[in-house]
User: Fold these one by one.
Assistant:
Number 1:
Amino acid sequence: MNLINDAWISVRRKNGEKIKIAPWQITEAIGTDKEIIELAAVRPDFNGAVIQFLIGLLQTTCAPKGNSDWRVWFNNPPSSTELKNKFESIVLEFNLDGTGPRFMQDLTIEKEDPKVETVERLLIDWPGEAALKKNTDFFVKRNHRVNLCLTCGVQALIAMQLNSPEGGRGFLTGLRGGGPVTTLIVGDTLWKMIWLNVLDINEFNSMACFTKNDKKDLFPWMGETRKGNTHITTTQDINPAQIYWSMPRRIRLIFKHSESICNLCGEKTEIFIETFYSKTYGVKYKNVAHPLTPTYVKDNDILSKHQREAVGYKFWSSYVYGDSDGQSNPAKIIKTARGRHIDDIRMCIFGYNMNSNKPKCWYEGVMPIIFIDNETQWKHYNAEIAMLICAADMARYFLSKAVAKALNAGVFNTVRQRFWQETEPEFYRQIAFLREEVIQEKDGLDIRRTWHKHLVAKGLEIFDDMSQSEMIGDVNAERVARAYNELRRNLNGKKLIIDILGLPKEGGIRVS
Ligand SMILES: [Zn+2]
């Protein structure tokens, strides 16, 4: 199987039809009801892996020279024949099987006395022995014996190399750590979804050492693996392309030629994967940023961000702006999107919520992005937004405390989730107004006042709702009344109004 020439990617057309295509077919039938709208893999983490495969493929073979060059394909997508020709140069590097180099698999492992593992271990959420005992396997059905078809096998392989969690001594985490967050610009067709996330060549080249041009500098499986027990691999050791084609795990799939049913997609297959060779110390990456992942600096190291709770506007600043002193940065693609002046854009955020080496769940969320061109105004805008988010977080804290007091029980998760969700639409409405205010050099005070009123109203509404819920049963009315009064005082108090929102003591705001 060849990952450029063969049809292995499940997609959905505009008319609802689900088909499998080869990568070069992504632009087929654009403008008709058969155009390809989205990926349609059997698992959401496979969709996450395949979209990064496709972005990586375009980034590696078709990076635009600059904004105007990028815009040409954005407005007039290339034909599938044109794409096929572009991908031709790397067909040999994308063989999944065969005796030579194989896509994302170790070249020499068979000579080095490897361990043979069962294929379910390629799935990140497959429970290890400890998890089985504790019954904490989250989203894979237990099965005694698992067979994967080649299509599911390759998606599991990519997902593992991209997200590789800590796997015990010598089993290294991925280039961005275990289960990183990925932020993508959203497009309304598969083509746009890919092309919106491809950087200009110069920007991409700046991410590693573009003069390193041996095949194995781009695709680490094209030579002997640069092993992590003897080498640390930094941006100086790799071509930027390797950021998309990283190989922290030494894996080589074992193919069986016989009829079987795939345990993931349920399709009949003539060749299947039941086991794979495995060995410790794949490539150990350090200080390598990824174009699609926000980063932060810790002890002079550049680290990728990971998401530990549901995606919501609380993280807007972190994913769109970072901070003003450069310690926290959005993914490079977000900065690029700002320079491309695309109207009305949204960002999709996804990844695993990892608890050390175990995934708690897969999360996905979409948020609007609003940019301002002028650098000073952009900074001002983000400072105002940080204030609004900080105020919301404080209101959420007061609310959680009050509900817990009223019910004499800890319900922090439910309160937190409801509060962020229910204040979200107003947040996006206000930051759209705020953009206009900032551009007109206004102070944003009106927005802050409106936002404060909204937080108070929502806080009290959620409190009422939760403290009177019939599901709670025995409610102590006096305790509820005390908690309510305290919440009102806190929401209208100095801390929120003056210390955080910086509102002046005037206009009927009662400050306790
Ligand atoms: Zn399958």
Number 2:
Amino acid sequence: MIEAQKLSKLYGSFRALDKVSFQVRRGEVVGFLGPNGAGKSTTMRILTCFISASDGAAKVHGVDVFDDPLQVRRKLGYLPQRAPLYGEMTVWDYLRFAAEMRGLDDSAFRSRMKTVVEVCGLAKVLGKDIRTLSHGYRQRVGLGQALVHDPPVLILDEPTSDLDPNEKAEVIRYIKEIGKNRTVLLSTHNLSEVEAACARAIIVSKGRVVADGPLDDIRARSGKVRYVVTVHEKKVYEGGEGYRDSARKPPTAEEVQEALRGLPGVLTVRELPTDDSAHSFELAGPLGTDVRADIFQLIVQKGWLLLEMRRETQTLEDVFKALTRGDERADRGRALLNDEDDDHASPAAAAAAAASEEEDDEPEDEDESEEEDEDESEEEDKAAAEEDDESDEDEEEDASDEDDASDEDEEEDASDEDKGKKKD
Ligand SMILES: Nc1ncnc2c1ncn2[C@@H]1O[C@H](COP(=O)(O)OP(=O)(O)OP(=O)(O)O)[C@@H](O)[C@H]1O
Ligand SMILES: [Mg+2]
């Protein structure tokens, strides 16, 4: 239903996407993850025909986004990251307008609105002008516009970012529900939402796909499992005939750590912060082993009081952090986390260091000199400043003229748009 084939996007000399490929099948809800600036929105804007790619191909519902964008748009519901709305329209009028554009007649619109109002929580604001709505309610309206024609393919760019926890849960519940017979590509920074709604995730970093697969496979990528073991710091086990030993003392943190470290199959032991009534440790072991029985035996043998023991495979968050570490380092201006010069590393040097950590198949043109990096970070700063301006404009725009409410993003990418329109 969605197919991206080696999509690349250049903004000037900056490569925002680098050969991004993936497929999403019918009935899949796929989480599209990545740090800020990784290229999620850019990919989504290409898939929804808002901008064209510099290279590569994409299909939605079997139709090429470059050859027949109108047909693609008919099959799509798209919620952009900053949904452009007409501020002086009421919510009801705006959604009717969106439905009319999608070819729904009045009765189809009214019957569809029952679901949209319920899912998006719009009942209280249907008669209000959009410009008077809070951020979260505007996002609900944007989501309503994406759902109103009940499209077979949904592309949602951070649909829950401004929503309150109740509404977030409702939207995620609905996305999961509609995902049973439709196709949803959902970007979010909330990994628990991905775990709630998606069976599969695609993680992008610096314009490349770094992971794509079922969540369990992604979580297992590190090849490690984690245990948390907590024992009482002040008391020992006192129950059971023949077990009482008045000479037995509660353990020190060092004793527990040392004993846990000695267990076969335990790779690392790290103390966790606790209050002063418990010692808590995090252990790591190889995937496919289970040392819980050994931990239990050890604690019984020592007569310690076990407060907690649990085994977890790595969380999605752990894997996300590990896979996107290059972005993180560059963002913080740190070339290497343990480097002595960390604090003094320039953003350009950090970016260069992060780039140099990448795999060998790095394309030649990405092998930038420090000078080029500086240019790039300037460009990125400019882009960020433009984006700030843009969101300011969004707000003014809502309060002013309808005509100005055309998508700022489209203007920004006027040249790309032209390319798309020629084929329209
Ligand atoms: N119109 C533009 N001109 C220049 N650079 C751009 C433009 N749009 C995006 N970029 C750059 O492309 C990169 C990818 O941006 P994109 O918006 O796709 O990231 P994202 O993954 O959606 O991030 P976020 O999580 O912050 O929404 C960023 O470095 C961004 O600054
Ligand atoms: Mg984005």
